Amino acid sequence: MGVRDEGTGAQLISDGSVVYAEALWDHVTMDDQELGFKAGDVIEVVDATNKEWWWGRILDSEGWFPASFVRLRVNQDEPMEEYVAKLEDSREEDSATMGRLLGPGLPCKEQMRANVINEIMSTERDYIKHLKDICEGYIKQCRKRTDMFNEEQLRTIFGNIDEIYRFQKKFLKGLEKRFNKEQPHLSEIGSCFLEHQTDFQIYSEYCNNHPNACLQLSKLMKVNKYVFFFEACRLLQKMIDISLDGFLLTPVQKICKYPLQLAELLKYTNPQHRDYKDVEAALNAMKNVARLINERKRRLENIDKIAQWQSSIEDWEGEDILSRSSDLIFSGEMTKISQPHAKSQQRMFFLFDHQMVYCKKDLLRRDILYYKGRMDMDQMEVVDVEDGKDKDLNVSVKNALKLRSPGGEEVHLLCAKKPEQKQRWLRAFADERGQVQHDRETGFAITDVQKKQAMLNACKSHPAGKPKAVTRPYYDFLLRQKHPSLPSTLPQQQVFMLAEPKRKTSNFWHNIGRLTPFKK
Fold first, then answer.
1. Which interval of the chain is the signal sequence (predicted)?
2. How confident is the model at residue 99, as a pLDDT?
């Protein structure tokens, strides 16, 4: 490991210098407040006052990362372009050196491809052993001890890992069939990933549950009998010396590693190779799987916030917002012009997938909203209205758009303050339809249990008989975004460090933060 000096980093930053560090290892994260990166990435260090966790930036991503995973650049004044160029040169030199070391035999690229294939096969077999150890060494033993565990606890701790184990055995069989033992570089394994790309989506459930598993496990590990029991399970199964939480992290890391392995394989596959197109397609497919998992995680985290939002609205009527929706697409203020007398009303609009809710602000308390109605977006077409007189309502309009049911029996005329706001709304309506279509194609859905739990949590934050704290859940959340707290746990360096594909940023809180109701 490279030599670091925390004091130097903090000192340079306090002097106003821009400090860069180079990643020594991949840092995988499932936490929005942590910064994920790959070995060799260059990180701008923003805050190095804490010895163990630093705050850093890579392009437009910011977050905490373990200081032990990086080393400060030797020459901080070296321009970034020169640094990246040097890094590329050194990689080329490494490749040339490798070619000389390999000596006669296979050309360098083919040898490197054989190495990557062998690594994929080897890690896959190791992973199957990990899964088998968890299922047979832990779950089977836990089920025998009904005095210590109930099924709900086991489901929380282990998630759907048994389902993952069954799938991975089938996947490994497919890889073995396509693996050429005598000449590994000729193996054609890309098609195997493509064949099973939808099956990999079962990891979504596991990754979403993982934080709950860690929480449940940490509670149990405070009691000695559970500590002794889990250690006895490990010894009985003759597992390597990694704690149970380390074992449970491996599926999260595994699904993040596939795109890295396939990218490496593609790099050493000649475009003329029979496997080239399949590996290229497999890489994109596995990147999409990782993106989908991250997106589902974000959506599940948002349902609690949506439930809290609903519970803060006065005079709510009809079904819960979560009964049909799970994502806030856009929100803002517009003028609603209604039939029959072309009455105009200022309303706050919240566009979710499948529906749009509109509310009225309290005249005195501007932070209180009253429910006024909703529109079924599955039954509406959006019409761009030209400035001038509207034929339906016989009224002059500017920056207007119309929501109209196919039969024309329901018409809503909405006016934005500025042309750019109207364009933003038109894009938002297109995004909403795109989101609905995407969910349909990927089979995304929130379970009834998850909806019920979210509404229950929201009710707990607003006890009966007490006034509703309209802004607190949101205000507190926004405060945490501006002044993030340090991660409570230190990184587990004994577990494999793997990179996670870049998370798609969400505009959920960006939009919420700009709304008057949620400002203090």
1. none
2. 47
